[in-house]
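Batch 3, record 17
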Amino acid sequence: MAVDVALQLELEALYARYAEAIDDGPLEAWPEFFAEQCLYLIIPRENVELGYPLAIMRCESRDMLRDRVTAIKETMMYEPRYLRHHVTNLRVLSREHTILTATANFSVIEVLPEALPRILMCGRYQDTLQQHNDSWLFVERRCIFDSTLVPNSIIYPV
Amino acid sequence: MAVDVALQLELEALYARYAEAIDDGPLEAWPEFFAEQCLYLIIPRENVELGYPLAIMRCESRDMLRDRVTAIKETMMYEPRYLRHHVTNLRVLSREHTILTATANFSVIEVLPEALPRILMCGRYQDTLQQHNDSWLFVERRCIFDSTLVPNSIIYPV
Amino acid sequence: MAVDVALQLELEALYARYAEAIDDGPLEAWPEFFAEQCLYLIIPRENVELGYPLAIMRCESRDMLRDRVTAIKETMMYEPRYLRHHVTNLRVLSREHTILTATANFSVIEVLPEALPRILMCGRYQDTLQQHNDSWLFVERRCIFDSTLVPNSIIYPV
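Prediction for the assembled complex:
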């Protein structure tokens, strides 16, 4: 089963830089991975399986993502924390000209002050990307997390 | 040290699809990654190091793997749960014509209802694969997990 | 954004073998990934961000790394444990002739006897490597871990 080697590694690098913007900053770089018209969802797997549309974070344009960043940096109150993503098992599912779909597994480790690391969330990205100049932008990113329990501390995007 | 780029990415894709069958289903796809005559073991690292053959799961043919799937889906009683694999550090160790050996690190995160994610198991795959048409089948997969404690809830394969 | 495919996979294999030396041994192989003159640091992210140089492990030559291995194997007292690394999101940041810089995310899962796996540490490698024969040696490896809490059980390197 042939893999498009260059595309695979290009996307792995893109997903790594995306995670870096969240884990190590600057967080302002995060919305720039998306197309102007886009859909970003963090949604429990149980809802996806039951066909419920309810998401715990929903942004419908790059501007909304930028507003989210402003809120995180300026107006939200929360305990400071570190995040660390692992993104593995990335696979391109389909490609037609300048559009592709892909999936990957993610886990997000959260480290609160004076605490040991713990897994905040794990799950699967379901993505649609559009080619843009010599890179790719997310048109849709669904972060489907494996939980029936909604974590009460989703401050940062996934 | 030259890496066979196409083979490396082909195997990474195979391992990703294998994990997907367990994490996201359909679980019935899992036995199809194996040769008809095969050996599948989940075995504590301590036993491997001490030379004890005792495994906590042992299947000696694809039919036994299929039986296992039937048991999980139809006859076993257990609390529903989500699993999520991370497979990293995949390396081809040897290749002779249509047979290769490979190793990779794995961790399995388990999410029980109303609970936060936790690491169920981590360890290392030790694999032998055989080329079959344009893909590879597992002839032997040893899932050697880093623990002296045997988890009491190994329902799904690793 | 073009990725040097061969280099990327060569480094991924190198990082996998590095992790294997720590997780599966022999630990004596670990110092051999470094140049004779080198810097190895395990340092809390908070210190890096505040500009404090204090590291919880600091070795300034390959000989010091070898001394560390001897200490771990012969003189230190600690509970036996298993470690398992996940290294993801590896990216080459710059390359000039025979020197390159790279970064990757890591997490280290620790398994103590009769205990479930837990995340000992997560963070980011910041590396400088030098080409040596047909491979690469670490001239500098900074293991920057996401924590304000210093784990009291850092026995092994990261």
